[in-house]
Amino acid sequence: MMAPLFSSKLLLVLLFGTLFGLVLGVLPGLGPTTGGALILPFTMTLDPLSAIILLTSIYCAGTYGGAITAVLINTPGTPAAAATCLDGYPLAQKGEAGRALGMATVSSTVGGIFSVIVLVFFAPILANLAYEFGQPEYFALAIFGLTMLASIGDGSPIKNLIAGAFGILISTVGKDFMTSIDRFTYGINELSVGIGFIPVVVGLFAISEMLTQSTLLDQVFKRVALKAVKLPTKDDYKKTWKTILRSSGIGSFIGVLPAEGGTVASLIGYSEAKRFSKNPEEFGKGSVEGIAGAEAANNAATGGAMVPTLALGIPGSATTAVILTGLIIHGVRPGPDLFKEQPEFLYGIFGAMLVANILFFIFGFFGAKIFARITLVPNKILWPMIFAVSVCGTYSLSQSIIDVWIMLFFGVLGFFMRRYGFSVVPVIIGLILGELVEGTLRQSIVIFDGNWLMFLTRPIALTFFILSLIALAFPLIRSKKNKKII
Amino acid sequence: MNNVRDKKRANKSLPFFFRTEFKVFFTIILISTILLISTFSFDTVPPILNRGIQPATFPKGLLVLIITLTSIIYYLSFKKPWKKEKNLPKPFFLTILSFIIFIIISKTLDFFLAIAVLSVFVSYYWGERRIFYLLLVSIIFPLVVFIFFEMILGLRFPPGIITNLYYY
Question: Which domain holds residue A54?
Answer without folding.
Answer: 3-482
